[in-house]
């Protein structure tokens, strides 16, 4: 399989509003991100986001309670690194700018943009901007600005500097998806030489600090004054480079030395090498629809850009493309984004799980604050590991995040067999979450049945809050108990005394086994489907007259208590559990559940459609699967949710990959057998993708009549491989 030349341009996006384009064409590397602001008219004091660089402010409640989250955590929007000031030699500023072309090369990470600049006097020139962000050298970003004469052919005076933020008016929004003002940091800026500016920023509350350096690589002149002469009919290029230090470090650069060893061309090479490696491991091609093929590559491009790589940061809900959701990390990582990395970049997956391990002490504190005597409860939304959700019914009450993290640890180990990670970090997380469920749940005798239940919880469906026995929550908690037993035995195989440091033994495993057997999973005998919770099916359905487009998303138009009274789901909930545990139910039951819950789901969450696509494929309805998949694959490129300007929908980007892999190719792993099943819709003539199982890179190819799995690098895996229900022998491509 050969990688095509993939480019995203203005012709490939549905909206040309500036804020939307800033998101779509953003560049990032897991450490920091640069929104594609218009270099002339964009906001010079916002546009750069550093993963995990945040400020706090007290949460104000009308009536606060014990255990409520106390502090907002908000990612800081730092100055725009792209901004530039251009004037004629006679002092006429180029104040307006029209973006006439954009080309984002998904195979190299190079971004090329074309602008027409204009003064109030009507003078015009053309600006071509080329930029790249370091992917292996993650502290660097660079850009060149090439000027060409329009109807103006004289001299230009160009200057560039990092601006100091000014007080901005807080814009109050009822939309919880948007960010909030976090207060101004302490900023110090100094020109350490004529071609090098140092910008140091420190947060007032969190005491984080970072130093940014801006330098010009073009000889002659200074940052504040570069003279360009357009009268000779040739193009003139100025090149600038930015160094974004690691948080907490007092970065210094000798002003007498070159700003850095990497020119823009070196950064472009660094970026190109990184992306070549990404596509070698995880290339996907979708035959029959070039727009869809491009959309999938864009989604994976942005997913790789967003992921923290240092074990201290994670993937924010909007990545590093925007400050929506305040830069918080959610369960989205483990359930929607981490699978892509588990099956394509296991080193990255390990680092993302390591972030959760770093927050385990605060998770233990959170469990105690909520009156649970043992175990740990991970924060629902957070940057530093502390809970930052000011609305607990749809936040903290989503206890399922504990089991989501445990599930992800299990899936990572299932593929990698990384027993070192399990012994050092993973088992402790799974054990602590199992202890939480053990203490949080309660026994309930119903007739002759003794059930272990979980009360007053919220499942993935945020339109149904504080209920008893949410099916998804209970099923994942059951898995959490089962997983801690399984991993304990894996540790004991590696070290007969390996459990001693965790303070548990065989009697504790027996307790977990008993709990797992008795976790209650609600089921409707009348409808013969799993019940979303104890009360969901008894509620009235959402009124038809309130189901018109202008009423969606419901959370922006109705009080939560209004929504909670009805049988209405924001997203896949019980069906999400059906996706995670395909062995639990027959195709006939899946069809019943799918039909029922599809009728009460609004898909107001961007996390929903990918799951509906996967399950439609599994139950033999590839056309419906394709319908949902199209919305998933192109969500941001068509601005489906109408809020891409606040940042990309990162969980949906991961979901689009899952829909292809788990849906159309029927992929899942169970009992050391890798399963594939061909569910390709007629609209897709050919699907190929790569994934890594243990040390083996597999290539899977599907057409309407064939399903082929081959090993393209590494050994033949010891896992069994099943295609359409039949075990096969793998061959290695020579």
UniProtKB/TrEMBL annotation:
InterPro entries: 6-hairpin_glycosidase_sf, 6hp_glycosidase-like_sf, Gal_mutarotase_sf_dom, GH65_N, Glyco_hydro_65_C, Glyco_hydro_65_M, Glyco_hydro_65_N, Malt_Pase/Glycosyl_Hdrlase
Gene3D superfamilies linked to this entry: 1.50.10.10, Glycoside hydrolase, family 65, N-terminal domain, Maltose phosphorylase, domain 3
Domain Glycoside hydrolase family 65 central catalytic: 298-657
Taxonomy, superkingdom: Bacteria
UniProt GO MF annotations: hydrolase activity
Alphabetical keyword list: Hydrolase
Glycoside hydrolase family 65 N-terminal domain: residues covered: 19-212
Domain Glycoside hydrolase family 65 C-terminal: 669-717
SUPFAM superfamilies: Galactose mutarotase-like, Six-hairpin glycosidases
PANTHER family per the UniProt record, alphabetical: GLYCOSYL HYDROLASE-RELATED, GLYCOSYL TRANSFERASE
Family per record: Belongs to the glycosyl hydrolase 65 family.
Protein name in the entry: Glycoside hydrolase family 65 protein
Organism: Levilactobacillus angrenensis
